[in-house]
Amino acid sequence: MLKKKLLNLAKLIFPIHRSITGEGNRNTLKLLQNINKEIRIKKIKTGQKVFDWTIPKEWKINSAYIIDPLGKKICDIKNNNLHIVSYSKPVNKTLNFKTLNRKLHSIPSIPNAIPYVTSYYKEDWGFCITENDRKNLIKRGKYKVFIDSKIFNGVLNYGEAFIKGKSKKEVLISSYICHPSMANNEISGPVVSSYILKYLKKKKNKFSYRFIFIPETIGSISYLSKNFKNLKKNVIAAYNLSCIGDERNYSYLPSKSNISVADIISTKVLKKKFPKYKSYNWYDRGSDERQFCSPGIDLPMVTLMRTKFGEYKEYHTSLDKIGNVVTSNGLLGGYKLVKNIIDELESKKYPIDITIKPLALNKCEPFMTKRKLYPTTSKANNSNYLKKYMDILTYSDGKHSLLYISEHCKISIKQTISIAKKLAKTKLIKLN
After folding, report:
1. Residues 366 and 418 placed together within one structural domain of the fold
2. Which of 373, 372, 338 is nearest to 191 (CA)?
3. Is residue 40 part of a domain?
4. By residue range, what is the domain housing residue 134?
């Protein structure tokens, strides 16, 4: 049963201690590779420039804990990966409570949760603890702090798979692999993505499909720095999968343009299949869509979610667990959403890979009569006939797809194609 397979993969990945670099990422990618041998594990060396960023050093964590004045071990990462601030440097020292307390992180409003805290780009250290446990710490005496970690020149890893279709035009599906032991915010994306990949490779597809499994932010920036020219040329729709494994809702965050094929197909499917879904706008962004839609990149990426990141109380805490937040039914629902969108993209009714380029033969409206696209005798009922031609022309600016024009102008896709071909024949537009 598919939902059992989705859940089992999530359970395999969940305990691995990941960060933006390191052995945990490689082990995660190897598990995903067991599901789909097409995934290639790639690397970028520490210190390499990627746009305005630099690939950071690799981080390895072996053990970390605190021993309180009574000899009790607390904040042990063997009990929960989130106890350590990600990228903490090595520490072996004895501290009083006041000094230690400044290096502890908790959430007063969620007293039973361990927060997720990072310090990627500044060498530092710290521990994360529940607010309840923090309140019960002994105020007198000495604490022994031990972190066995290493920060060194290494690599950043990511996974990539490509499924060739009939067309060179691509659909990009991205998810990230850098958060340790958080089920919805992290695990759900790669799990759903892995089984969508498995689904696509078993069928003949109109479009080609590219899957990437990357560390959030630095991973997407790194990938784009190497591949954005090819992506700009070929990608017609892109999907970021995040927080897609709970049962609470379905959510959609549009691309920056809000008019891409990815936007139109996503909203079409959501309205039909999941009508109670929640729609956000570009100002609510917060995941890797920021990089893929950034100025100079401007790929048509939307983010698909169940409950949006930051909108559920367990977000970025130890409470974001399998069973507590992510379920087999939730993962299956996320899978079905993405599959339905893919199936809609693949359906023959949409000429998604056809783009329109304007031909600057005329400024203002072209003279339609001389092209035999408008009657020589003007009558009241001619206006509706002409309006469809002019509506299609007004959006034939190289920025809007035929699909968008059809949906926006409320003209059937069949008639939109027919009119577009007539306009192309008279050299008012060019169809690619």
Report:
1. yes
2. 338
3. yes
4. 60-152
- Provide the 3-class DSSP secondary structure of residue 415: helix
Point out the least confidently predicted range of 37-46, 141-150, 361-370.
361-370
Which residue in 154, 156, 157 sits closest to 33, CA to CA?
157
Which of these, 166, 40, 142, 20, lies nearest to 93 by C-alpha position? 142
Residues 293-314 have pLDDT tens digits of 999 999 999 999 999 999 999 9
Please tell me the distance from the alpha carbon of residue 81 to that of residue 100, in angstroms, as a whole number: 19
- 351: in domain: no
Are 51 and 225 in contact, with CB atoms under 8 Å apart? yes
One-letter amino acid at 245 equals G
Helix axes 188-200 and 2-13, enclosed angle (nearest 10): 130
* DSSP-assigned states of every residue in 357-379: EE-TT-SSS---GGGTSS-SS--
User: What does each C-alpha distance from 103 to 69, 83, 90, 122, 129 come to in angstroms?
Assistant: 17, 12, 14, 14, 10
Q: Are residues 165 and 226 in the same domain?
A: yes
Distance CA 256, CA 217 (A): 17
* C-beta neighbour count of 65 within 10 angstroms: 19
**Stated pTM of the model:** 0.90
